[in-house]
Amino acid sequence: MNSKTLTLALSLLALGVGMGWSVARWTPAPATQPQAAAATERKVLYWYDPMTPGQKFDKPGKSPYMDMQLQPRYADEADAAGAAISVAPRTVQSLGVRTAKVERRDLVLHVEALGTLQLNEREVSIVQARSGGFVEKVYARAPGDVIAAGAPLVDLLLPEWVAAQREYLAVRALGDAALSAASRQRLLLLGMPETVVAEVERSGQAQGRHTVVAPLGGLIAELMVRQGMTVSPGMSLARLNGLATMWFDVAVPEAQAGAVAPGQVAELRLAAFGAEVFKARVAAVLPEASGETRTLKVRLELPNRGLRLKAGMSGQASLQGPRQSELLVPSESVIRTGRRAVAYVVESPGRFRPVEVQLGREVDDVLVVTSGLEAGQEIVASAQFLIDSEASLRGVVPPSTQASSIPREHDGHAATYNAKGRITEIGRGELTLSHEAIPDLRWPAMTMGFKLANPGLLPELKVGQTVRFSFTKQGDDYLIVAVEPVAVGAASGARP
Fold first, then answer.
1. Of residues 440 and 295, which shows the higher confidence score?
2. Domain range holding 190?
3. Cα separation, 198 vs 200, whole angstroms
4. Which of 242, 249, 310, 390 is a good FRET partner for 421, with 20 to 30 A between their CA atoms?
């Protein structure tokens, strides 16, 4: 019985295995796995060279420009134009990305600048001797004194005036009107004031002594005459500076100088008078900037009532520019590389589009945007450098930059770049160089071909030689315009 039972059990087991194999062979596989694989497969839009992202290729392979593999552009990374980048929400959160709104609001530029009071150099008078003579008396004056208009300065004895006056009196006694007029005119040409000529006519006596008076009230800046001196015609006796108005010179940063114009009203606070506010007017914006401080000198003019203001006093001026409606973004939201300024617009959560912007002036912690953005747009305000680095690796660039891969020109000449590399191959009119990284173009160290502007340099170059070279971009070609070998000692420590 035991033998028969064991045989039956084995038979039933073999039958079950055979039926299972048949069912498995003829039953179709579930369709869920291929569908899931298809769902997770990423769609490739095209392939591109990260160094020239504007050029698209329909299949993978090696770049025709550089010694590197083409990179795929996926549909979930960027749109068909390749002008946006997608970042996973978890990555956005880990980067600490903050955003800000582009705002349009009225902006008033306030300029605060320190300065000192100066004498008004437009109110200067030079007192000179009209004729040769001698100094008989100098009144009690000294440089630094403040005198009123008409105050006497010196008494001069002028022999030449005496001779001319006696001649005039003699001619006048003849009764000839024409001769008298001519002789009188000669007195005026000798520098005699009208008051002196009138006194000669009234008294009939020659006036040999003349008192020189101050033509205006103010400060005696210089007094160049002493008693007993001999003076000649045109000799300077004193220099006077008026005090009715004063200058206040301030240095304004050139970034704010555009908001200052002649005629503007300014408020002035001087350390000597506490909180008292003086009203001043912008008299001039001087036409030359300081090369050391990058500031422009602005000259304010204000009245000196009661002669309270003294040259050399320090204070602070406050100027207010005109109110203008401007498009504003936080300063930290813009990446400035020297050749362009880029902001990242938030198209949707985790999706960012680089936009090249044109900037105006910077006020406090905001920047004025003149083009590239619109009010209400949301832009990245922090961690944009990490997003920009990822965009560069994927070849996502602002449209205006992508439209032209030719370096920007300055004064009609294409930009020139400098690098060092090792010659790996010499062809007809071209070199293949293994060069170092070129930060200005965001190029890593790589091996690529360059054309020579002067093919006559080829006989002087050898494979394996390390060279320094300068190149430009002309169309789709990179053209070497200068090349020179590097000494062995210099090249050994910095080989690409």
1. 295
2. 124-242
3. 5
4. 390
